[in-house]
Every structure is written in C-alpha cells, then in structure tokens.
Design goal:
By secondary structure, the protein is an alpha+beta fold. The protein folds into two domains: 236 residues, Glutamine Phosphoribosylpyrophosphate, subunit 1, domain 1, CATH 3.60.20; 173 residues, Rossmann fold (3-Layer(aba) Sandwich), CATH 3.40.50. 29% of the residues lie in helices and 24% in strands. The chain contains 16 helices and 23 strands.
C-alpha cells in the first residue's frame, strides 16, 4: 500500500436560518453556526436582511475566525441564513464559500446548501449555465432565472423554487432567503437532516441538527420531511410539496460519524445509537482482551457500549488535543501525517502490557488508523484488536461526502484480512449492516447506505465529480 488512505470521511456542510421579527438574526445565526462547526471547517458565511436590503459576509476559516462583533454588527436584520462549508463541489476558495448570493432586479437571493447534486452537468446545460463552479451556484442561478421570468407579487421566490426543485437530483437540504422570506427544503430522499424550531420570543429557526436549536434556545418543533419545502414569513410557516413522490433515505453516516452526539435524528439521540452500535459489535465480534479503548472522540460512545456488553473495562488510552483541526482537511499527505501525531497521543499507563480492543466508528482510507495502531503498540500494548462500529466503506458517495473516488477507499481495494494486515492489527472486525440498521432504529425508517452496500437510491453520473464544473 502507498499510505495514501485517510481514516475518516470528509464532512458535509451545516446550514442555519432565522426568521425572528424584532431580533438580531446575525447574532443568533453565529451561535447556530458554532454548533454546526463540526460539519464544515473550510469557510463560514451569513446573509441577513432588514426587510429591504440583504447583506452577505463570508470568508475562509472557522466561524470564530470569520465573525466578531464588528462583522456581525454590519449584518442588520431580523431574517438571515448561515453556512459552514466542507466542499464536495468546487475548490476550497473564497468564491465558493456560502451563502451564495445573487441580486435579481430589486430582490437579493441567498442560498446555503448541504449535500451534492448528481445531475449537475445536465442541469447546468439545461439552464444554459456555463459559468458556475459549484452545484449550489447552478441552483441559485436557476432560481434567479425563474424569478426573472415570473410575476413580481411577493411570492416570486416560492414560485421559482416550485418550478426548479423538481429538476434537481441528488442530495440537497437548503436554506434560502430573499428580503422577506426564509425557505427550507429537503430533497425527496431526505439524505441530509434539516429541522424546524421556534424561539421563545417569537420567530423560527431552521438548522441541520437539533443541537444547534439547543444552543440558541429554540424549541424543536419537528423535522422538515423528505420532499418538503417550508416557507416562513410574516404569516408564519407554510408547508409545500414540490416533488411528485418521496422515499426517505437519511444518510446512515449521520448516526455513524457526522452528527453531534447531542443531536436527535429520527427522534433518537445520536449518542445513544452509537452506544448501541458498540453493544451490537461486542455481540457480533467478541474478543479475549483486557481493556476497551476508544479512538477519541468519534469512537467513544461505541467503545462505551462495547465495554458494557462485553464486560471488559473501559479506559482512555489516547488523548486528543482539542486545538488541532481535523486531519482530513489538511492539504497534503505530509501535513496530514504530522497533524495525526499532533492530534492524538497515547497514555502508556493504560496500554502497557495489555490486550487492547481499539474501537473506532469507521475506516475510510486508513492512514490514521494505521498510525494509531502503531502508537498503541509503541506504548506497550501486547495485542491490538480493532473493532469498527460500521461496515466496511467500499463504495463512493455521490450525495455529499467527499469520497467519490473509489480508488482511495481502503475496503474497495482489500479484503478484511488484507486490511487487518495493512493496519498491523491482531484482529479486525466490522459491525454488520443489519447490526447498524437495528442500532439506528431499524431499516424501515429509511436510510441511504450506498457507501456500505453499493445500493444507490438514485442513478449516479460519474461525470459529476468535485471539479466537474471548474474543468469546463
């Protein structure tokens, strides 16, 4: 192996929206984006409207680097949307940061997108768009063209979306706004989460995860349903159904890795589901060992569940430096390797002379895991038994994870025993797909597991890679 594998998938994006008359939307949005920072660390942005003018500020970096009191004060208004980005379409440059914005006559339209379209090439051609660098901009330009062709009666945005949305394929949870309306949309499969909350002072909030509602003091009202569009304005919340049919397929990796442990999905606490995944893993793949050690932080709940079910003691054996960024966003393999060593450090006293069950949530490309096994061995472990609380990640994702190249997926190239050998583990076992579904409440709830099963809910087009539009 050439060591070009990384162990965790790229994140998605976080979207947030506020309609709160009499309140400062930008400050509320900034808190919401802090809660969604884990979903994207490349750029952050906010668009806000006072009812007359829409102002947008976005930049590269974390929310805390992009926004302060000065920048927030320059975003007046009671209505707005925010976005944290991890790119799956287009390069990591300022021009591709969101919210995307376009002025259409007297109307300013802003859009934030979580997901990835699978018909980007055909859609751009259909719309005559030969300049956009991302699928999000293709959507925004399509909305703008529909508005220009329509009546000017205050519902232009709503009508434009009802016209455009049925043409979109793939994954899209959207927050969209003009000067007077906030709109939330989920694609007909509901790949990416989106929920609705209410503020105690009056007003409404849209967010990728319920944890963001908690941070701004909003009450969870409900999930936006797959295939639903909600329009929020002075008249309250209206629900519309732009699509002919729906087939809910929430991304199973929201439970495995993406979502915050304090968020709820399908009415279930993510942390509790991850613990159940660990319990099921201990039943499916028991091992004689001395201690269960998590890979922090994503492996902690599963390790707790494994420990409880197996009866083996739980111990922290790796310490995470919380001030080091996530390894997969580093631009070169050399920096990724260095970042891994800065990020995690072993506790020899909890590892030395012991047979270790090392629990993590997934292995995608493998470099991090290989180095962690080496670290644990160098700290004195007698044996290292890897237990992974999801099935092997074998197929590319076209719905919003940056893993569209199967040649960089470890399990697409090697058998489980070959992976064990590559990682230098004494044993390796993954949670079964049935075990994952059962832990998450049952397959009847509706999940997309294409990256684990090869079963894609919609046709996919290999032409639509991350840089398709930029190559034109």
């Amino acid at each position: 192996m050439d060591g070009t594998f990384e162990s965790t998938p790229g994140e998605e994006c976080g979207v947030f929206g506020v309609y709160a008359p009499g309140m400062d939307a930008a400050h509320i949005i900034s808190f919401g984006l802090f809660a969604l920072q884990h979903r994207g660390q490349e750029s952050a942005g906010i668009a806000a409207s006072d009812g007359q003018t829409t102002t947008v500020f976005k930049d590269m970096g974390l929310v805390s680097q992009v926004f302060d009191e000065t920048t927030l004060a320059a975003l007046p208004g009671h209505l707005g949307i925010g976005h944290t980005r991890y790119s799956t379409s287009g390069s990591t440059v300022w021009e591709n940061a969101q919210p995307a914005f376009r002025q259409v006559d007297q109307t300013g339209i802003a859009l934030g997108h979580n997901g990835n379209l699978t018909n980007t090439v055909d859609l751009a051609a259909q719309l005559g768009d030969d300049t956009s660098a991302t699928d999000s901009m293709v959507m925004l330009n399509g909305i703008a063209e529909a508005i220009q062709d329509g009546r000017s009666d205050g519902r232009q945005l709503e009508r434009a979306l009802m016209s455009l949305l049925p043409q979109l394929e793939g994954a899209f949870s959207l927050v969209i706004m003009d000067q007077g309306h906030l709109v939330g949309v989920r694609d007909p499969h509901g790949y990416r989460p989106l929920c609705l909350g209410s503020l105690p002072e009056g007003g409404w909030v849209l967010a990728s995860e319920t944890a963001a509602l908690d941070l701004v003091g909003a009450k969870f009202e409900r999930d936006i349903e797959a295939g639903e569009m909600v329009v929020i304005d002075a008249g309250g919340v209206r629900s519309l159904l732009p699509f002919d049919g729906t087939d809910p397929r929430l991304c199973i990796f929201e439970f495995v890795y993406f979502a915050r442990p304090d968020s709820n999905l399908y009415g279930q606490n993510v942390h509790g589901v991850r613990q159940q995944m660990g319990r099921r893993l201990a039943i499916e793949a028991p091992v004689e060992a001395d201690v269960v050690v998590p890979v922090p932080e994503s492996g902690i709940p599963a390790a707790q569940g494994f420990s409880v079910e197996s009866g083996l003691p739980y111990a922290d054996g790796l310490v995470k430096n919380r001030y080091i960024g996530r390894t997969f966003i580093e631009p070169t393999q050399m920096l990724r390797d260095r970042g891994i060593r800065l990020k995690l450090n072993p506790i020899p006293g909890n590892l030395e002379g012991k047979r270790i069950v090392l629990v993590d949530d997934s292995i995608v490309r493998g470099t991090t895991t290989r180095q962690l096994v080496r670290m644990v061995r160098e700290a004195g472990a007698l044996e290292v038994h890897l237990r992974i609380s999801s099935p092997p990640y074998r197929w590319p994702c076209y719905y919003g994870m940056d893993t569209s190249d199967s040649s960089r997926l470890l399990a697409a190239q090697l058998s489980v025993d070959e992976i064990r050998e590559f990682l230098d583990a004494d044993s390796l076992a993954y949670l079964s797909l049935d075990g994952l579904h059962d832990s998450a409440g049952g397959s009847e709830l509706g999940f997309c597991n294409a990256c684990l099963s090869g079963d894609y809910p919609t046709p996919v087009d290999d032409r639509n890679d991350k840089f398709t539009l930029e190559r034109r």
